[in-house]
Amino acid sequence: MSADGSEYVRDQRYLTTRITADGRDGFPVEPGRYRLVVSRACPWANRSVIVRRLLGLEPVLSLGICGPTHDERSWTFDLDPGGRDPVLKIERLQEAFFARDPDYPLGITVPAIVDIPTGKVVTNDFAQITLDLSTEWRGHHRPGAPDLYPERHRDEIDAINADVYADVNNAVYEAGFAKGQDAYERAYRKLFRRLDILQERLAARRYLVGDAITEADIRLFTTLVRFDAVYHGHFKCNRSKLAEMPVLWAYARDLFQTPGFGDTIDFPQIKEHYYVVHRDVNPTGVVPLGPDTSGWLTPHGRERLGGRPFGDGTPPGPVADGEAVTAVTG
């Protein structure tokens, strides 16, 4: 919170140990050694799931999926038989953080990558995780994997990511968790000012940078796909629904219908997380039945702008066994 307690400030202290090709932090890239732990509900974790799928890393980096809700202690593996992750053999993600540091003082967050042999979390630095999957894990990408962080565009991608993080990804939380009117209105105005800028940018181009999907599109998508389901009502970001912003709505549908995006989205889990966990915002814990999600599958018309979704690469294959999500419904 801010000094007067009215403004939400995200704690950005994470375990920043990196898994790299050369193992300079003590954790070299090794097939089968690590487990990516996520929740379908979390937008920060959703990024890593999309990148893993687009790059075809499923055979070398396994996926542990926590349930959509958690208490003050930790995310839990309540979706697994017996409420225990079948690989890590733990009930709470907290156990992997405490295995690394028994006095771990920070948040138990997803995504987190766990070293399977030791059961210790290596990193929960969500922004670096996806970049490292694109660069440090390159030797294990599938044939035809897209380049999501091309060197020639990195400065532009980084600049857009910084603006999108501050004004969109995090601003919805600043609005939703504001404890005062002024703090809420600052976040609200910042959010919609940036969404208007993004609409203008995307009116004549299919993707944010270059002519193919990059890390920048993935980071924006995971907020947009949650917008009407939770941020518009639950977080009071209600100037416009995404479906009322024509360019962004078409852009988001284009991505949703691209393999690797919509097939990672579970709307029931997303809604359950926000409306059940955030009791300070939604004291009753009642989860809304709407909105109708079938619109995500309607034609978007973005093909007319050209572009190649996967650049010189190809689409990912079918969703891995055990990783399918709940289909969109009316």
UniProtKB/TrEMBL annotation:
PROSITE patterns in UniProt: GST_CTER
Keywords: Oxidoreductase
UniProt region (Disordered), positions on chain: 302-330
InterPro entries associated with the record: Glutathione-S-Trfase_C-like, Glutathione-S-Trfase_C_sf, Glutathione_S-Trfase, GST_Omega-like_C, GST_Omega/GSH, Thioredoxin-like_sf
Domain of life: Bacteria
Enzyme Commission designation: 1.8.5.-
Gene Ontology MF, one: oxidoreductase activity
Gene3D superfamilies: 1.20.1050.10, Glutaredoxin
Keyword rRNA-binding belongs to the record: no
Enzyme type, top EC level: oxidoreductase
Pfam families reported for this sequence: GST_C_2
Keyword Cytoplasm: no
Domain GST C-terminal positions: 147-284
Name assigned to this protein: Glutathione S-transferase family protein
